[in-house]
Fold this sequence. Notes:
By secondary structure, the chain is an alpha+beta fold. The protein is 29% helix and 38% strand. It has helices spanning 15-32, 80-94, 107-115; strands at 39-47, 50-60, 63-71, 99-104, 119-128, 131-139. The protein has a six-stranded mixed β-sheet, with helices on one face. Keywords: Transferase.
Amino acid sequence: MSADRQWRRDEEVPAAVRDEIQRAVVLHGRQQTQGSDARDIAVALWDGDELIAGGWGRTEFQRLYVSYLWVREDRRGQGLGGDCLRQLEAQALRRGCVDAMVETLLDDVSELLEHLGYVCMAHIHDYVPGFTRHIMLKVWTPRD
Length: 144
């Protein structure tokens, strides 16, 4: 090992370096596949100047990947989460997506997703102590 090499750990690794590692891993993965067409996708709902709900993720390989879906706590239970998801789905369908994937650690969210047409493809009990990770998929057009 060169005398100039040194390991840095934890707080010694700046956020920009962590971001670069993430970009490099994603780039490497995409180079292994054919036809990556990744595009960010987002929706936000405002009430005047206040953000009350939103979601974002990406579309890639004809799939909507929902990374985040959020409703402000005092506005939950009014159907806004489902509305946000339907907005993302509509955009994804216009982009040619044939299915959508969402992951959640919350049982009540997985039940909501099932109500909206998603099917649990896998779950990992105690993924985080006391929580199950649900991997949900909604198919609009079956893949060959």
